[in-house]
Amino acid sequence: xxxxxxxxxxxxxxxxxxxxxxxxxxxxxxxxxxxxxxxxxxxxxxxxxxxxxxxxxxxxxxxxxxxxxxxxxxxxxxxxxxxxxxxxxxxxxxxxxxxxxxxxxxxxxxxxxxxxxxxxxxxxxxxxxxxxxxxxxxxxxxxxxxxxxxxxxxxxxxxxxxxxxxxxxxxxxxxxxxxxxxxxxxxxxxxxxxxxxxxxxxxxxxxxxxxxxxxxxxxxxxxxxxxxxxxxxxxxxxxxxxxxxxxxxxxxxxxxxxxxxxxxxxxxxxxxxxxxxxxxxxxxxxxxxxxxxxxxxxxxxxxxxxxxxxxxxxxxxxxxxxxxxxxxxxxxxxxxxxxxxxxxxxxxxxxxxxxxxxxx
Length: 360
Ligand code: KG4
Ligand code: ZN
Description:
Elements: E1 2-7, E2 12-19, E3 23-31, H1 33-37, H2 44-66, E4 75-81, H3 85-102, E5 106-110, H4 111-117, E6 123-124, E7 149-154, E8 159-164, E9 171-175, H5 181-191, H6 198-206, H7 229-243, H8 260-289, E10 293-297, H9 304-313, H10 323-326, H11 331-341
Parallel strand pairs: 1-4, 3-6, 4-5, 7-10
Antiparallel strand pairs: 1-2, 2-3, 7-8, 8-9
Helix pairs in contact: 2-3, 4-11, 5-6, 5-7, 5-8, 6-8, 7-8, 8-9
The chain binds 5'-O-[(R)-(carboxyoxy)(hydroxy)phosphoryl]adenosine (KG4) and zinc ion.
């Protein structure tokens, strides 16, 4: 089954063609990072407008790179939510129009489940000429995750642990009570004057830093829950103290008062605290649920220190999706939709509305 999948939940316009949930025939990701850079974060109106401008060329490019025509596609999949309403509207309207006019089945996908199913992609089609898939050193996991599975979802909007014994019984076993970890990375990057998007900037700055220089508190939340707002504020307070300014000092001016070494040490101290916390919670859940496989998904799953720390902490051979399949992309939506299509009926194109907030 060849699925053309569309993902526009935030600031990436992405289209992919995925076969049988596991083989990537093409993947195109048009990033809007440059557009939002000046604002230090995603501006919803700019995101929606950019999706409108590029969605059709991106669909065309993904088809061309897969060497298929629209008629050869078996189904259409799209992220229905959660995400930014204006952004989701462009993807869902495009998917509905394609499904309606071509008489193809339509599968709406939950973005978070999509992040999980990025881990099922284990092959590139040999005939693909997709530019993204020809990046040197790009490797996929050698096998698919085996149930029961423990999944750590760490993105800009979500931080949660999920567990499933089959494709149809994903359960949230713990989630953040306030901010998501990706959000904390982005806010800390802003305070330290590091460029947007914050996660990768913090990771790069932290490489030269001393993670033990600034003592930051580990959040206290029961069992498998998380909290990141206190840690984020603790970094802000520590930076203010280091700069010798009051709490009302403008936070965008703090970084000017820090040396490169202080910035690196703050980045490393924050990253170390956040990652140790994620790993400790995952280990706790691992000991309780004894899963066969542990997977991670979402933009923060691209973090090398997180990947290394999990491998060290768990007695498992963990295989990771390549970084470009951890951040937002349509391949994960095509993979999820395939497994959904095995158990669910398609949705009528007339009734598919975006779901900006869609709790699991
Ligand atoms: O999944 P994603 O692409 O979008 C959402 O669904 O939110 O995740 C984006 C988040 C951002 O907060 C970004 O800063 C974070 O993932 N991120 C990272 C890294 N790369 C991206 N966080 C830590 N380390 C990274 N290397
Ligand atoms: Zn995401």
